[in-house]
Amino acid sequence: MTKQGYMQLALELAKKGMGRTSPNPMVGCVVVKDGEIVTQGYHEQYGKYHAERNALINYDGDLKGADLYVTLEPCCHQGNTPPCTDIIIEKGISRVFIGSLDPNPKVAGKGAAILKEHGIAIETGILEEECLELNEVFFHYITTKSPFTVIKYAMTLDGKIATASGDSKWVTGEEARRHAHMLRKKYSAIMVGITTVLQDNPLLNCRIEKGVDPVRIICDSHLRIPMNSRIVQTAGDIPTIVAYSEGKPEKEKQLKEAGIELLRTSEPDRVDLPELMKELGNRGIDSVLAEGGGTLHGSLLKSGLVNRVYCYVAPKLIGGREAKSPIEGRGFSRMDEALGLNKTEILKLGNDLCISGRVDGRYTGQ
Ligand code: AOF
Ligand code: ZN
Q1: For residue 103, which of 365, 354, 346, 351 has the smallest C-alpha distance?
Q2: Does the C-beta of 107 come closer than 6 Å to ligand 1?
Q3: Beta partners for residue 290, in sequence order
Q4: Rounded to 5 degrees, what are φ and ψ at 138?
Q5: pLDDT (tens digit, 9 = 90+) per residue, 35-61?
Q6: Model confidence pLDDT, tens digit, residues 54-84
Q7: Which of 28, 259, 345, 352 has the most neighbouring CB atoms within 10 Å?
Q8: Distance between CA atoms of 92 and 120, rounded to whole angstroms?
Q9: pTM beyond 0.85
Q10: Residue 304: CB within 6 Å of ligand 1?
Q11: Cβ–Cβ under 8 Å, residues 263 and 114
Q12: 73 CA → ligand 1 middle, Å
C-alpha cells in the first residue's frame, strides 16, 4: 500500500472519534512493519489517550524499525496525557509520516523536531488537504479561541425556507433531513433565534446517537422564551444557554431554576454576536451550528462570523414575496461584498442537493 493509502486509513480511524473529542482534534494512527499493518488507534474521547499512544500501547511485539502514519503532528507536551513523542521514541519507530502540522502553540513543529533529534525520519504533508479539512474546527478554534461557526438551512429552488403562511414541514426529503441531523453530532453547539423557538417549539437534540447532544444556544434578546417550551422543559438534561440583552429579574430567576445558563451581552436591544461567540469560546465551545432563522443567519453574516455553509436545496417552487428566505436582515448592498464560498462540495441526497463550502477555504495550520 502507498503512503497515501495508509494515511487514508488513519483518516478513516480518526473520524470514528467524531462528536467525542471536542475541543481536541480527531486523530488517527496506523503503524506498519515489513509491509503489514501491525497496530492502529485513534483519539476516542476528550481527555483520553491520543491516537498514537492508543496504537502503540495495544501492541506487545517489537516495533523497532516500524513506520508510523498519523493525521496530526505528534504532541510533545504533558497535557491530559503524556507526550506522544515519548512513546514513539521509546518504541523505536524509524519513520513518522504526518498529515498536517499542529498549530497548537505547545506543539507547532516542536513535536516533529524532537522526533528528528532522536534520529527518526519525518515526512509531512501526506494527504495534507484532507487532514486539514478533517480538523477545520480544531484549527480555527486553537488559533482564534472563537467557535467555528456554520450556518445550515434548507430551501426551495426559489430560495424560500417556508411558504408565505409559514409552513415549512418539510422543505427537503428524508435523506437530506437525516444528513442535516448528522451535523448536530459533528458540532459542539446548536444555535437558533427566539422566533424559531416560538414557531417550531424544537428540541434541538441529536437523535441519531446517544450522548452527543450539542449544547443548545438560544439568542433571545428580550428573554421571551416560554417556560413551557420543550427547550426549557429539557434544560435539566441537555446543557442550554440563553443569550440575551434585557429581561425581567423574575424571568431570569425562573430560567436559572429550570437549569438554563443565562449569558447577557452588553449591547442594548439585541444580542451582540461577536461578544457572545467570544464568551462561548471561553467556555470551551469550539463550534456552533446555526440552524436559523433567517434573522440570526443575517446577523452572523453581517458580523463576519460565518466559517462554513450547508445549504440543502429541494427541487420545488413555492413563490410568494412574503415567503421567508434563509438569510434575512439588510444584507450587502453590492455584489462585490458577497460572501464567497471555497472548496464547495455538492451532494445528491434523494431528490435534493446539499451544497457546502468554506468561507475562507484556507486553513494552513500555521
Ligand atoms: C488529541 N488527540 O490524538 C492528538 C492530539 O488535552 P490533551 O492533553 O489531550 O492535549 C491535546 C492536544 O494534543 C491537542 O490540542 C493537540 O495539539 C495535541 N494532539 N490531541 O486530543 C490526539 N494527537
Ligand atoms: Zn499526543
Answers
A1: 365
A2: yes
A3: 151, 191
A4: -60, -45
A5: 999 999 999 999 999 999 999 998 989
A6: 999 989 899 999 999 999 999 999 989 999 9
A7: 28
A8: 9
A9: yes
A10: no
A11: no
A12: 10
